């Protein structure tokens, strides 16, 4: 009987969390902004209230603006190019895409770094400053899927000491192993040595969402790799992201 009571209480707690009134958004929550060399696109994914008709109007870098096509604008303002990727708890995860010309593609490929500051303008909101990551075709990495995790094995092209490995534009977390033991940094590798990068919660925040890895050595060299995310977001994830963006801690959790 006690076991049944505990189980029922657990189900009730989960139900209360998902049914609890949502936090109203003051502005869209940007989840991902990515330049993809392969598809020749800029893609912005973001969370909004489900009844909010806003959409991406412009992606701006320095003095240049980039605009999603608006071939069929509906009465609610959303166009055929605005895709709803998920709907949960009164929120929607949406994506708008800019198709780049050859000149625009060359503009982004001219930068040495893989991260650029940009401003995203939405209908009826002030511009939001965020980060654009550059995903290059020759830096796409193959990974092994391990249940709900992804494992990328980095092979050192030369003798190096890795100072850090970071990632951009993803809510995933990463950990590191060498010979199935936790890797400690700085990490010295001989040419041909490997280190495994394990990606936890590799949720897809856009249609072709990729995580950008930046591997930095003690000699200030950097190597970039990008990895395709594979997992659908779980139920309640949008609400969790909204609460975290607002610095909100739910005492019921």
Layout of SSEs?
Elements: H1 2-19, E1 29-36, E2 41-49, E3 56-61, E4 64-66, E5 83-88, E6 91-99, H2 102-109, E7 115-122, E8 128-135, E9 144-146, E10 149-155, E11 160-168, E12 173-178, E13 181-182, E14 187-189, E15 194-200, E16 210-217, E17 222-228, H3 237-245
Parallel strand pairs: 1-8
Antiparallel strand pairs: 1-2, 2-6, 3-4, 3-7, 5-6, 7-8, 9-10, 10-15, 11-14, 11-16, 12-13, 12-15, 16-17
Features:
mainly beta, 5-stranded antiparallel beta sheet, 14% helix
Notes on the structure:
- The protein is mainly beta and 253 residues long.
- Helices cover 14% and strands 43% of the residues.
- The strands form three sheets. An eight-stranded mixed β-sheet has the order 4-3-7-8-1-2-6-5. It has a five-stranded antiparallel β-sheet with strand order 9-10-15-12-13, with no helix packed on it. A four-stranded antiparallel β-sheet has the order 14-11-16-17, with no helix packed on it.
- The longest helix has 18 residues.
- The chain is globular.
- The protein starts with a helix and ends in an 8-residue tail after the last helix.
- The relative contact order is 0.18.
- The N terminus and C terminus are likely disordered.
Beta content: 35-45%
Question: What does the overall shape look like?
Answer: globular
Largest sheet geometry: 8 strands, mixed
Poorly predicted spans: 1-20, 249-253
Q: From N to C, what is the helix and strand string? A: HEEEEEEHEEEEEEEEEEEH
């Amino acid at each position: 009987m006690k076991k049944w009571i505990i189980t029922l209480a657990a189900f009730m707690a989960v139900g209360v969390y998902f049914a609890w009134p949502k936090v109203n958004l003051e502005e869209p929550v940007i989840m991902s902004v990515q330049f993809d060399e392969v598809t020749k696109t800029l893609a912005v994914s973001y969370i909004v209230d489900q009844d909010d008709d806003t959409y991406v109007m412009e992606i701006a870098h320095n003095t240049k603006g980039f605009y999603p096509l608006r071939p069929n604008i509906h009465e609610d303002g959303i166009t055929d190019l605005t895709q709803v990727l998920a709907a949960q708890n009164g929120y929607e995860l949406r994506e708008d895409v800019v198709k780049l010309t050859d000149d625009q593609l060359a503009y982004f490929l001219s930068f040495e770094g893989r991260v650029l500051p940009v401003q995203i303008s939405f209908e009826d909101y002030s511009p939001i400053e965020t980060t654009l990551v550059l995903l290059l075709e020759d830096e796409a990495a193959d990974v092994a899927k391990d249940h709900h995790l992804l494992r990328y094995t980095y092979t050192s092209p030369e003798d190096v000491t890795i100072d850090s490995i970071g990632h951009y534009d993803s809510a995933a977390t990463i950990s590191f192993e060498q010979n199935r033991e936790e890797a400690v940094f700085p990490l010295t590798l001989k040419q041909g040595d490997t280190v495994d990068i394990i990606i936890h919660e590799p949720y897809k925040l856009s249609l072709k969402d990729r995580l950008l890895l930046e591997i930095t050595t003690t000699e200030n060299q950097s190597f970039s790799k990008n990895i395709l995310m594979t997992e659908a977001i779980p139920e309640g994830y949008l609400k969790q992201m909204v609460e975290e963006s607002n610095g909100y801690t739910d005492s019921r959790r």
